[in-house]
Amino acid sequence: MQLLGIHHLTAISANAKHNHAFYAGLLGMRLVKKTVNQDDTSAYHLFYADGEGSPGSDLTFFEFPVPRERRGTHSITRTALRVNGADALAFWEKRLAAAGVPRTPVREIDGRLTLDFEDPEGQRLSLVDDGGAGDAHPWAKTDVPAAFQIRGLGPIRMSVPELRRTKLFVEGVYDMREERHYENPDYKGSHIHVFGMGEGGPAAELHVAVEPGLQPAVQGAGAVHHVAFRSADADYTNWLARYAEIGLRSSGPVDRFWFRSLYVREPNGVLFEIATDGPGFNADEPKETMGETLSLPPFLEPKRAQIEAGLTPL
Predict the structure, then answer these.
(1) What share of the chain is helix, strand, coil (3-state, %, to 5)?
(2) Domain span at residue 70?
(3) What is the CATH classification number for the domain harbouring 264?
(4) 245 Cβ partners below 8 Å, 6+ apart?
(5) Domain count for the chain
(6) Is residue 1, in this structure, part of any structural domain at all?
(7) Mean of pLDDT over the chain
(8) What pTM does this model have?
(9) Per-residue model confidence as pLDDT tens digits over 80-103
(10) What are the angstrom distances between the C-alpha of 260 and each of 103, 173, 228, 279, 283?
(11) Nearest 5°: CA angle at 25, between 314 and 108?
(12) How far apart (Å, rounded) are the C-alpha atoms in residues 203 and 295?
């Protein structure tokens, strides 16, 4: 029952059209699934990933008409995206600068070259050099050269006022392991603790920043809704059993059609999801044309006309 790494991260946008222009246009990610929030079908749910829609590469957004996030602790605060090498970071530094994107110069954080930046709604992102580890699946229909494209999700950073309860949770429930800690570049005098899972490395790390002086965050546009960890398909029922054995209050089994999910809040209130690798985003449409039309799970198909009428074209 080893978690395999980060599966996806879901954030909040107040403007799907502008969001699509930034992530599919400027960042060159592939829109692999254009669908709706299954609990609120008036809202888009957009999935951006690599050229194959690989597990661990998708950054997703709910479109909600909400004000900006109030930043603070008890929240996920930064999402890393992996690229290969210093040349890739130099390319991105120039591309982001030309687009007027707020950013910091490339610097070394936790032993990795890192470029921090924000999207137009204040979503905090980083490009991290992963050294080319693992497979890459470039997307042909972008102007970003294949060698410099975003390869997948990197470390996810969350903020808590104290470490103990979150540490007990991720180690005791998920069998993550604390591998090291480093000085927090954004909060003087505090540290970020790195918890690895599976084979470890930048695609399989949760970074927990201890930031006791901050007010609790209030979610809004530019915030992260939840992070999902990868599970082998065969382990899904075992995770259900484990939660029940421990007595955790969870969502219970949730079938998202493209993967199966299980949600729970860790002790500092951050929403965690376990998500299976399969069946995958090509379960309902050919891989070559994924994301080109509105995709709905079978239980929403009877409402397609109504749902499409309520969505703004991207």
Answers:
(1) 20, 40, 40
(2) 6-309
(3) 3.10.180.10
(4) none
(5) 1
(6) no
(7) 97
(8) 0.97
(9) 999 999 999 999 999 999 999 999
(10) 35, 19, 11, 9, 13
(11) 135
(12) 28
The arithmetic mean of pLDDT across residues 66-79, rounded, is: 98
CA distances from 39 to 65, 177, 267, 275 (A): 15, 34, 24, 17
Residue that the structure tokens 């992102």 belong to: 125
Closest CA to 304 of 314, 313, 294: 294
**What element of type H or E holds 80?**
strand 75-83
Closest CA to 154 of 115, 107, 191, 189: 115
d(CA 273, CA 185): 27
Question: Which of 29, 85, 104 has the alpha carbon at shortest distance from 60?
Answer: 29
Q: What is the mean pLDDT of residues 265-277?
A: 98
- Surface-to-core class of residue 23, CB atoms within 10 Å of its CB (0-12 exposed, 13-18 middle, 19+ buried): buried
Question: With 90 as the cut, is the pLDDT of residue 76 above it?
Answer: yes
Examine residue 295 and state whether it is found in any structural domain, yes or no.
yes
